[in-house]
């Protein structure tokens, strides 16, 4: 550390010696360029700060004029009003760039427009070197400078930096951020956890517009729907200010889109790549294109379009075993399913942005985005049901007196879309008032069609010996059945006969209309300077969900097709994990060839209770107002205020009477109010050493399915799932303390501690119904616990080692670690437990090298185990995701100023994903995905 500080001091001293002591208005300093011209209202200095290579905007630059300090906005713009006529000193500080020290002259008859161009601290003597600067180093600089000047605690990561990691979607990109972890579906990132909190504790927005969720059952946004290539930056705010929506107990993830006004010239970049998935040899393809430019006589109109697409042929080996406790208290295997997944996932995303800076005081913008995710999947399954266990049977080994075998094929196409429209403006009225407004619409749509499934059942019910000595790879032996295999469960094909055809259609749609109006002006009654802000907000959300189910279980209908089970199989063999051998797999065209006749039959019946009770409709209107006070005293700044949110909800669902076979629509309504105070302090020991302290509050509203009056009976008629209209929103009190030290020329060391106290945490629990028509059935329903808490620690280190001698000056590190611990009171006085999604340990370590156009990065990500589901009746059946580590590698070489080649390898160690019940020998699920790679080209003009 002493060596690092010495080298930093030497670099700063060299920069100060190189810079002129003073310069006249419009003069050129050693590090930067200032161009000034008279324009606008008297006493106002405004303009933009950009980098010298591409003319890209530099947000988060610290500007000081005549003792007044401000920072640049996302488009690099700044504005200082109320300056007297005369000559003033101006200074600009930006990590990774040479500082500016200059003077400007403000006249008495007009304002001054100032254009500032900063030069990187890296040697840019060659054209290729200048392009290199725009790569990882500038990407880090853009993010770190915005984070450094923030009034509250947040992490900012630029898209350029995230693009250096081999991540296939936006969810996976977020896992590189301190305190952020992800939940996966078949090995691919889908949901985001922040600081070990449940998924619903995090909100997701695009340019401040809350995203609607396509998911029929939860609020959490499935971020794998959004490609990672259509964003400009990610902002993760972990301590809310009063002007922010309150439904982000853990944090708010804001996706920032790029504006054509962020650059001076034509923006044109793109990439294309292709590769393969090791498991199943599926295709891996990805491409993106961004084009934008400035127009108009004053080049004050910006138009930008970004498009992205990907295709992945994913294969997954999967085996699942569910356990139960019998009447004697023994824990025994109940079912085993061996599944082969074969599918194709495609993502497309388009974002368009129009910006019109009418003049220095007025900006209008319109942003539209559309993301689509489609998953077309075939799933071959061998399902085993264990019955009549012998007296000597245990969870480790034993004999089922009777075993039922099903062979199944399911074809499912799931499509999700997220669309946003955002119209807004920023306006200055005189020298004091600023007005911001926004009108938005977000829509999330889920459609699952087709979703059909053939089931064939064995006519033989043999005894089955099982052995779970190796819980990941159990073994079986069929006993007392002629023609059975000597070991394993690859049954003779002539044992199987048609059982049924399942047919299902799902559709869900969520809309949110948002309106926002904010006012701000300088205040002088507290501190040396500051601002007073207040505003109003409305979010009007509605959701509809429809689930239709049909079934044909008539053996005569199938016999009339003139085929048997073997006729539906092809010469593709199941070889799950190179261990589970279950015979030939189904042909993929059997739905198109044989399903229509079964669907047109009068025996293809609607499952009335299921189809009715799964449907629901909900509305939620949130109206909010807030007041925020900012104050600054030399090195200390404060942000405080209060937010008021009123929530009005209603929900409809049908109750189905099994005895009368009738359905009655039930409706519930509820209103509640939450006050959300917050207070933030920021203290600068020096411009690069910052201490923050925050108290904030937040809420997490229940999922719609958990509050509407629905009661759904499972297919086996042994379980029901219900809504709970009395469910309360979770309320939290949050404390955050952080220290950040920014390293020159470019880097960061930080430590942050956090504590969250939770009132009314929500758990999805299991219990038994007592009395009524559902007496004795197992009920799954959301309930409130009494209280809870989350506490933890975040550590982060990122640095480029420019100060090392060549060739080691191209090295760098990006690393972070998060410790989180949670505890909460379960409902019904059932004790205390962790919150769902809390991993005690999350870590990222990425080592990179970038020099002479060559870039290489190896990235390791680790997440420790966490609880997913609770069984209040029996904690031995709580469901956990096991720990998992993933190693990825990416590299690129820039062989001309505009072109580079790149390559990526994911999951190098062939890491598997594992779930278990209660303890790790009860393996609920084991999945394998294999390695995959991609290679291609990028261009930028």
Automatic annotation (TrEMBL):
Q: Output the CDD domains linked to this UniProt entry.
A: ligand_gated_channel
What Gene3D superfamilies does the record tag this protein with?
Answer: Carboxypeptidase-like, regulatory domain, TonB-dependent receptor, beta-barrel domain, TonB-dependent receptor, plug domain
Span of domain TonB-dependent receptor plug: 154-251
Instruction: Please tell me where this protein is predominantly located.
Output: membrane
Q: Where is the signal peptide?
A: 1-23
Please give, as recorded in its UniProt entry, the membrane topology of this protein: Multi-pass membrane protein
Keyword match Cell cycle: no
Where the record annotates domain TonB-dependent receptor-like beta-barrel, the positions are 469-908
**Compartments, as annotated in UniProt:** Cell outer membrane
SUPFAM superfamilies linked: Porins (SSF56935), Starch-binding domain-like (SSF49452)
Superkingdom of origin: Bacteria
UniProt keyword terms in alphabetical order: Cell outer membrane, Membrane, Receptor, Signal, TonB box, Transmembrane, Transmembrane beta strand, Transport
Q: Which family does it belong to?
A: Belongs to the TonB-dependent receptor family.
Q: Which NCBIfam families match?
A: TonB-Xanth-Caul
Q: Provide the protein name.
A: TonB-dependent receptor
